[in-house]
Structures are given as C-alpha cells and as structure tokens.
Amino acid sequence: MITRYQTQEMNHIFTESSRFEYMLKVEIEVARAQSRRKIIPVQAYRDISKKSKIIFERIQEIEKTTKHDVIAFVSQVAETVGENGKYIHYGLTSSDVLDTALSLQMSDAFEVLKTEIKQLKLELKRLIKEHALTVCPGRTHGIFAEITTFGFKLSGFLSELIRCEERIEKAHEQFRICKLSGAVGTSAAFDLDLEKEVAKNLDLKVEPFATQVIPRDRHAEVFMSLAFLASHLERLAVELRHLQRSEVSEVIEGFTPGQKGSSAMPHKKNPISGENITGLARLIKGYAWTAMENIPLWHERDISHSSNERVIFQDSFTVTHYIVRRMKSLLNQIFIDKNRMRENTHLLGGVLYSSHLLLHLVDKHKLTREKAYELVQKAAHGLQKGEHLKDALVKNIETKKYFTAQDIKVLFSGDRYVKSIQKRMKVYGQELK
C-alpha cells in the first residue's frame, strides 16, 4: 500500500485499527436498535456501548487461528464486554458490518478530499484573476494557433475541476449506504425497520436490494469519480510541463533554496511536481478499472473483490488527496513569465494573428473568404527568418493596399482577443464560482 504519499488526514482514516473502529460503530448502533425491540437485553446494549473497545494486537492474535478478520474482531470485542459480549454481531453476517463500516470510512475520506478540492479551486481562482489579461499563445497540435490569455486558459481547467467536484459529490452521496440484510440480502434475521433505524442513526441510506454485499457498481462509481479528478489534474500538469520546456519558458515550477534538479547538470529546474502528478494519476485510473472488474461477482457474492479493495480504497483516496494538495502547492509557488508569454505570441513573426487578418479582409474589403485566406497564408508561409508578418503585409504589393498603419497596430495588438475573452468571462464567469 501507498506510504510515501500518505497525508496525515487520510492516514488517520485508513489505519488498520481505524477500520475496526468503524466496524465497532456499526455493531454498537445495531445493538442499540436491537435492544429497543427487545431482540437483545437492554443491559447487553449498555455493556456493548460502554465496555467495548478495539485492541488491535489481540485481533491479530486471534486471526492467526480463525483466519477470518471479522470473527477475530467480534471475539476480541466480546472479550472486552464480558458476559453480554455474546450479543455482539447478533443476527449479522460479516458483509453487513464490513460494507456498512466501509461506507462510514469512505464518507470521512470524501470529506477530507472535498476540503482539499475547495482549496485548489481557490488557487486557480487567484491565478485566473491575476492573469485574466496576460496575453499568451494558444496552441493546437502543439503548434501556435491564436492568442488567448493565461487566465482564460486556467478558467477551462477550473470549470473542469468544478465538474469533477460535482462527480465526487454525487459518488459520495450514492455511497452513503447501510446494508444489514443478512447472508443473501433477504433480511431473514430481523425486521426491515431495524435496518432503517441504524441507517438513519449512521447518516446512511438502506441498500434496497443487496445480495450478501452492497452491489459493487456503487464502489466503481466512487473510483470513476476519482479517476476523472486524477485525469483533470494530469491534464493541467501536462499543460504546465509543456509551458516549462526550455524553448517555451512561460512558466517555472517553484524552486526552493538548496533544491537541485540534476546530479550532473547544475542548471536544471525540472517540472517534478507536474511529473509526479502525471505518474500518480495513471495509478488512480488503473484502480478504477480494478473497481469495474469487481462488479460481476458470482451469484449473491464471492470474495474476489475483497482482497483488492483493501488496497485500492486506501491507495486511491490517499494518492488522490496527495496530488490535489501537490497541485495546489505547485500553483501557489509557480512563476508566470508575462513578458515571455507576450514575446512568444510574436515568436514566429506574429502568425498567431492570422485569423483576424483574414476577417479584416473579408469584413472591411469584402474579399471572398477563399481569396482572403490565400493572401494571408501566402504572406505567413513566405516569411523569411526574423521577418514579421505585419511588415510582410505592408511590403507585399498584393496586400499592402488593404492595411493601413492603424489597421496593423490594431490587428497585431491582441486587443480583439482580450476583449472577446473579457466578454465571455463576464457571461460565463458565474459558473466558476
């Protein structure tokens, strides 16, 4: 299981002893509901509630003999309760406790993750506001396309993060499930109302048609929501890694005093955070596939899902929380080179402005689109090394009659792009709040 990437908040939730604490919480609530219905003595519930405690080392000792962790857990807790310990786990099957406890455990993990996502959103919003007017090249296929702004670029990532957050919330809600319906889900051991009462007290909902386990499509949805979030973080990490390439140099990851980028090359400042996030995102997406494989269990249940779930839940939540936090730190410390971004818009002689030159010829001079495209393309493709498109336009006999000095100034200023971006942000900016 993941250790290096554990965060303190997630680590507390996923200790082995914590898992048994969640299980004990379920057992106590079941005992309370049973005592209210006189299924077990009231004093038995009181003893279970007050005396029961987890002694992890003792559970491990018993499990060496039983080879069954739930039986070992029940036996150990019964020892701490005394005579009325015999009423612990009364009428339940192992999966009743395991699956319901897992719902509680994951609910806490979701809350930790959602808190971190909110913090990441704040970092993105800060950068969007700060760089709303920071002109930079837009690229398609890795090639210069048109002008955009860095703030607008990040707005797309924030919008995607908000959608990821919504998926996380939906996955969390549908996973708040209580299952106490017995060996094959028929509730033969006790009345349906008991399950409803326990579910309510645990802030969960009843699984209406369980087998012996909660159906694993619910679990798969959790992992898919994490995979979507991981893919989003990977996309942002890859973008920032590209922008840090030496020949681009528009952003630089934070570099702390004493940090070294290479054992052999002292000049190196590598995008290590972006690369770490990219690699770990692949792991999370792989676990989502494992969760999908857990859906088709045999008949009412088998335990083919059980072994891998003890790894993938802890690892996925731990690593997802880590890379959200790592991205937040990356954005907080990143250097944005505004001057380099603007310089890069003219790096190839201002060809990024070609679409507005085309529109100028069509709108102002009424050329056909085909003719306007031909003129601009010919000028752009014919540029000599170090030559700028605006100079080529006023020199060329075919195009100079269409462009005044004022036209050139306006068309190559980037103002039209910035104004259209500002308008779009004004119309759709509310969606980013």
Amount of helix:
55-70%
Tell me the quaternary state: single chain
SSE string, helices as H and strands as E:
HHHHHHEEHEHEHEHHEHHHHHH
CATH superfamily of the largest domain: Fumarase/aspartase (Central domain)
Shape: elongated
Structural class: mainly alpha
Strand content: under 5%
Strand order of the largest sheet: 1-2
Query: What is the CATH class designation of the largest domain?
Result: Mainly Alpha
Q: What Rg, in angstroms, do the CA atoms define?
A: 30 Å
Low-confidence stretches: none
Tally of alpha and pi helices: 17
Give the rounded overall mean pLDDT: 92
| CATH architecture group name of the largest domain | Up-down Bundle
CATH topology of the largest domain: Fumarase C, Chain A, domain 2
N- and C-termini, Cα separation:
36 Å
The total number of structural domains is 3
Q: Give the tally of β-strands.
A: 6
Largest sheet: 2 strands, antiparallel
Question: What can you tell me about this protein's structure?
Answer:
With 433 residues, this protein is mostly helical. It folds into three domains: 1-90, Orthogonal Bundle (Fumarase C, Chain B, domain 1); 93-252 and 268-337, Fumarase C, Chain A, domain 2; 343-432, Ribonucleotide Reductase Protein R1, domain 1, CATH 1.10.40. The protein contains 17 helices and six strands. It has helices at 8-13, 16-36, 42-51, 56-66, 69-81, 94-130, 150-174, 192-201, 217-243, 272-293, 304-333, 338-345, 354-365, 369-381, 389-395, 405-411, 415-428, and strands spanning 135-140, 143-149, 177-178, 205-206, 251-252, 335-336. Strands 1-2 form a two-stranded antiparallel sheet. The chain has a two-stranded parallel ribbon with strand order 3-4. A two-stranded antiparallel ribbon has the order 5-6. A hairpin with a 2-residue loop joins strand 1 and strand 2 (143-149). Helix 7 packs antiparallel against helix 9 (217-243), helix 9 (217-243) runs antiparallel to helix 10 (272-293) and helix 9 (217-243) runs parallel beside helix 11 (304-333). It is elongated, with a radius of gyration of 30 Å. The model has no long low-confidence stretch (mean pLDDT 92).
